[in-house]
Amino acid sequence: MKRFRFTKTDTSIAKLIAILLMILHHLFGFTNRILPEYMYESLHIVQGKPIEELICFSFKICVAMFLFLSGYGVFISVRKQKNISKVIAGRIKGLLVFVWEAMIVFVPIDYFLGITKVNITSTWKIGYNLKNIILSMLGFEKYNSEWWFVMPFMVLLMLTPLLIRFIQRRRADFFTDFLVVFGVAMFSSFGLSQLLTYPLFVTFAPSVWGILLRNVVQLLPIYMMGMLYAKYQAFSYLYAISPKSMRYPVWIFVAFGSMYLRYKYNNGMYDFMLVGPMIFSMVCTVRNISGVAFLANKASRYITLVWLTHSFYIFQFGQGIVYHFRNPLVIFGVELILAFGTAFVIYWFFYQLRRLWGAVTSGRKITVKNKEG
């Protein structure tokens, strides 16, 4: 039997699925953040709630998907390059550059529109002074409420050399590593919250550093699980145990089953166990559909910018445009056009700036070829 490989294209497909789930989560999972005059017309009401809200709120697992794929990718990159510092520094720099580019575009827009909150229902105020802007650009403050992941993710990247050393230790095995990850997850869900209630931590717990600690510990098991899947080639094992005659029905069942469990246990405690099989089953279900691989590879370079910018239209301004047609399907389409269109323009603009700067600093002449008609 031909060995299954989870390729770079598969990763692009998984990221595209994750960002679509994230957009749906933000569009319909928070009806309290939609101004009454822009509230959409639900396709169906279930127990007094729009069915879109019930379905899309559980799509928060998209964050776990990105983290898992990051752990998976970092482990493979380190194994190929053998230079952990270069890999980690490159990933932190890449993330911060995207944050800076998004802020260069959206801070002036927000300021011009008079936006004062990170989202409609938040109490967190946007500070337009130089100090707050710089802290936001470094991930220490939330200029956008959906950027809470920036600093925890950078901390996880900084911890990666220690995690790699642990996973690559002698006589390591998947079962022992899984038990360690399971223990970290249980401590995150039960132990840490209890620990922070002690008088010794009464001032630390609600502080920025206390919140950062909780976020890092909560996300750590998912990030580590991605590394374990990469080391032990768990995707190949999942493919091998999939019944040949019923692979697609099984994969669809696992995908929907994982999503249902995420809906049932919405605190994210089991994300580290659900996300691997869910990514595998979703990707395997759609990877052979015509055009999916091409679309995912083309979209992959814009995914981070879509993550950073799409929520501006949903939570800070633009609801009058996004929700204008009231129909959830049309709303989703409008937001996709806005999100990916914005990401494309920002990516193209700064790419051209980098090209121009590189040409200037290297002393190359910039020539423009004119075609004679």
Account of the 3D structure:
The structure is a single chain. Helix 3 (61-81) packs across helix 8, helix 3 (61-81) packs across helix 11 and helix 7 (174-195) packs antiparallel against helix 8. The chain has helices spanning 8-28, 51-56, 61-81, 84-113, 130-137, 150-167, 174-195, 208-232, 234-241, 247-264, 271-286, 292-299, 303-316, 319-322, 328-362, and strands at residues 45-46, 49-50. The mean pLDDT is 88. A hairpin with a 2-residue loop joins strand 1 (45-46) and strand 2. With 373 residues, it is mostly helical.
Briefly summarize what is shown.
With 373 residues, the protein is mostly helical.
Tell me what portion of residues adopts beta-strand conformation: under 5%
Low-confidence stretches: none
- The string of secondary-structure elements, in order, is HEEHHHHHHHHHHHHHH
Number of helices: 15
Q: Topology, please?
A:
Elements: H1 8-28, E1 45-46, E2 49-50, H2 51-56, H3 61-81, H4 84-113, H5 130-137, H6 150-167, H7 174-195, H8 208-232, H9 234-241, H10 247-264, H11 271-286, H12 292-299, H13 303-316, H14 319-322, H15 328-362
Antiparallel strand pairs: 1-2
Helix pairs in contact: 1-3, 1-11, 1-12, 1-13, 1-15, 3-8, 3-11, 4-6, 4-13, 6-8, 7-8, 8-11, 10-11, 13-15
